[in-house]
Amino acid sequence: MVMGPRGFTIGQLAAATEVNLETVRYYERIGLMPPPARTEGGHRAYEPAHVRRIAFIRHARALGFGIEDIRALLTLAAPGHRSCAEVRDIASAHLSEVRTKLAHLTRLERILSATVDQCSGAPTPACPVLDMLDAPM
Amino acid sequence: MVMGPRGFTIGQLAAATEVNLETVRYYERIGLMPPPARTEGGHRAYEPAHVRRIAFIRHARALGFGIEDIRALLTLAAPGHRSCAEVRDIASAHLSEVRTKLAHLTRLERILSATVDQCSGAPTPACPVLDMLDAPM
DNA sequence: CTGCATCCCGTAGCCACTACAGGATCAAGC
DNA sequence: GCTTGATCCTGTAGTGGCTACGGGATGCAG
After folding, report:
1. CA–C1' A21–C15 (A)
2. What is the pTM of this model?
3. Which residues form the HTH merR-type domain (chains A, B) (predicted)?
4. For an interface test with A, which of B71, B105, B109 has the most A Cβ atoms less than 10 Å from its Cβ?
5. For B100-109, how does the pLDDT look when each residue is reduced to its tens digit (9 = 90+)?
6. Are the beta carbons of A134 and B56 separated by less than 8 Å?
7. SS3 state of residue A37
C-alpha cells in the first residue's frame, strides 16, 4: 500500500511513530485523534499533521501524562492559544504526582531490599520475608 | 451485630484490617480468601485465622506484590511448607521490578522538573513544555 | 484473477479494585 | 412482636490505557 503523496496508511503511521496500530484506532475512538480521511474502500488516510499529533501524544505518554492531561495539552498547544501558565500547571501537577510515586517506590525498595538481604545472609531459622508479612507493620 | 465468640462480620474484619469491605469479597471471589462459614441468613462469619490472612495480604499488597505472587506466598507460608528459597525468589524478582520502575520514574522526574523549571524562570518566548513535547526525543 | 498483506469494526480481556442497584438480614428499642 | 436503621447479600459495570482477538473487506503485485 503506497497511499499517494503525503498520505499514510494506519500501518505506516504506526510504524513511523512506534505506536501500536490498535492504539492509534483507540486514540481516535476516544477523540484524542481526529478522524482522518478515508479511501474509497474505507481505509484511513493520514496526513503529516496526524504524524506530528501522534508523536506529541507519544512523548507525553512517555512522560507519564494521562489521557485527559494530554487532551488539555493538545488544546493548549493549538496555534494562537499557547497559554504557558496553564501548561505549566498541568505539568507541575503531574510532576508532584510523579514525586509522590517516587517516594512511595523508594520506601518499598528500602524495605524489600533489606528483607531480601536478610534472606541471602547468614542461615536464619525462619523466613525473614514471611516473618515481615506476618507481623503487623 | 455481635457474632458470638471469635466470630466477625465482614464489616468488622474490614475495619480491623483496614481493607475495604468490597475488596474482602473480591479476594474471596478470586480464591485468595477461603469462603468463611455463614450465618443462617447467609452472612459471612469470619474467624481469627481470616483476620491474619487478610493482614498478610494487605502487607504484601502494600509492598507492591501482585495477586498471583501473593497467592504463591500464601501457599509457601502454609505450615510445614516454609521454603525460604522460593519466597526469596519471588521477593527478589519483585524487588527488581520495583527498581526498574524506580529508575523509570527517576528519569521522568528529572526531565519534568528541568522543563517546569525553565517555565518558571526567565520570560521565554515559547512554552518549554510544549516545545519538548513537539520535538523528537 | 489469485493470493496474501493489510485494513476494517466490534467486542472482550488485562489489573486490582471500587461503586453501584435492589434486595435480605440482624439486633436493638419500644 | 414489630419497627427501624445499620449492615449485609449478589451481581454487574466502571476505572485507565491499552491489547488481542474474530470474521470479514480491501489493496496491490504478479
Report:
1. 22
2. 0.90
3. 7-76
4. B105
5. 999 999 999 9
6. yes
7. strand
